[in-house]
Design goal:
It is built from 23 helices and no strands.
Length: 459
């Protein structure tokens, strides 16, 4: 009975939050805070989105449509009253932008790799290459999860790797701590892998979209260069941390000799599309091609050659695309209403840029622990890019927040890979929290120390 009542209760809470947001501008907030009507309404939309993202009273993609509806119907008249040249297309455009197309191409690549079983082939090859030596096997698992998560859904990668690794754990003593370490490595390394490419995780797409809107173009290759040291350091610490906390002792792993079928036409076509697309993303900018334009190739080729069908198209994670789009649309409202400058005025005037980075990173780490990384990025990045900062500082700030979102993994609910691994019954909340805190603290330290130093040198 309670399970039936809770969803209805959540809907009531969400409705009350919407009503409060709509009446907020008439409560005297504008006079107290010296905001104009457009800014007050933008604050209301921002707060409503934050509440709904944190509580998940409604599906996260629905929040994006609420943001869009309020911007078009409620906010637009107030914006136009300020004699600002604005049209509905400003709020519609994020829902099919270059970044959204790029992400769609990434999802298609993920689908054809899974259907051709190229992901499982790579995982099996990595495990076979390690020859059962526990430390090297653990390193191979981490490397495999990171590589796959750079190009495909980290959720799908975690599910696939768990299927392959669980039988290996049966070879270990029941009381061996390394059993837990092997399983724990999968979700945490999948979380880290998303940092490596623009398509690795939705927060990356949100970051690139806002940077592009500010005239800061970061190419696919440049993103890899900017994030790779961050990724390698966190991966190395994860490997050493698991070996320290969950030592293998004298355990030995033996890979079963599974028969691998030779490549057929599907595998060759899939491999060609994958390699050609990645090369296009890496060098396409030199020929004036946007990443979203290049992403059209795998989309068209995959369905043209019959590697995917209509059911696969319907199965694409459209909810993620709309979640990202809603976050971008929220940023448009903050920018066009000039709310960012108001937010900047509330920050300590004597604070240094380094203190500002530390503050935003800490806020992101806390939010990313209790809400989705996508929602955290969608909430913080629009605020950051609206600040009047030099180009290099703005890019460093966005990178610090975005990468920190991927290291927020303390709880089973923090990321889908964490939840999947927790559901296996092999690891507990304490296991995830122990290593998750290490990754979170490391992410914060890197984001406010080594990260900015490296980024300023590279930029």
């Amino acid at each position: 009975m309670l399970a039936q009542l809770l969803p209805h209760r959540y809907k009531i809470f969400a409705t009350l939050a919407l009503i409060i947001a709509l009446i907020l501008p008439s409560t005297g907030l504008a006079e107290l805070s010296h905001l104009n009507d457009a800014q007050t309404k933008t604050v209301a939309i921002l707060l409503l989105a934050a509440v709904l993202w944190v509580t998940e009273w409604v599906p996260l993609f629905v929040v994006s449509f609420i943001i869009l509806a309020l911007e078009l119907i409620w906010l637009m008249p107030s914006v136009q009253a300020l004699d600002i040249a604005a049209s509905d297309s400003l709020f519609f455009s994020p829902f099919f932008s270059n970044i959204i197309l790029l992400f769609m191409g990434g999802f298609v690549l993920s689908s054809i790799m899974q259907k051709a079983a190229l992901d499982s082939r790579l995982a099996f090859w990595i495990l076979k290459l390690t020859k059962g030596e526990p430390k090297i096997t653990l390193l191979g698992i981490i490397a495999g999860c990171i590589f796959l998560s750079m190009w495909m859904s980290n959720t799908a990668t975690a599910a696939m790797m768990l299927t392959m690794i669980l039988p290996l754990t049966k070879q270990l003593r029941f009381d061996s701590p390394f059993r837990v370490g092997l399983i724990l490595a999968i979700p945490l390394s999948c979380n880290l892998g998303g940092m490596g490419t623009p398509i690795g995780t939705p927060p990356n797409a949100i970051a690139m979209s806002y940077l592009t809107a500010k005239g800061i173009d970061v190419s696919f290759l440049e993103w890899i260069i900017l994030t790779m040291p961050f990724l390698l350091i966190t991966a190395g610490v994860l490997w050493l941390g698991i070996l320290k906390v969950y030592p293998p002792g004298n355990d030995v792993l033996e890979m079963s000799e599974a028969k691998i079928e030779p490549f057929r036409a599907r595998q060759w076509f899939t491999l060609f599309i994958f390699v050609f697309t990645v090369i296009g993303w890496l060098i396409g900018g030199q020929f004036g091609l946007k990443t979203g334009t290049i992403a059209l190739f795998p989309i068209i080729a995959s369905f043209w050659l019959g590697l995917l069908d209509q059911s696969d198209f319907r199965a694409l994670p459209w909810d993620v695309l709309f979640m990202v789009s809603g976050g971008i649309a929220l940023g448009v409202a903050i920018d066009i209403s000039d709310l960012g400058q108001v937010i900047l005025s509330f920050l300590p005037a004597t604070g240094s840029f380094e203190m500002l980075v530390a503050l935003m990173v800490m806020v992101g780490a806390v939010l990313g622990t209790v809400m989705s990384n996508t929602a955290t990025a969608g909430l913080l990045i629009p605020i950051v890019v609206s600040l009047a900062l030099p180009t290099n500082q703005l890019l460093v700030m966005v990178l610090a927040i975005t990468l920190n979102c991927s290291t927020a993994m303390i709880l089973p609910i923090s990321t889908p890979p964490n939840a999947i691994a927790f559901g296996s019954g092999m690891i507990g909340v304490k296991d995830i929290a122990r290593m998750g805190i290490l990754m979170n603290v490391l992410g914060i330290i890197l984001a406010i120390t080594i990260g900015p130093i490296y980024w300023f040198l590279v930029l």
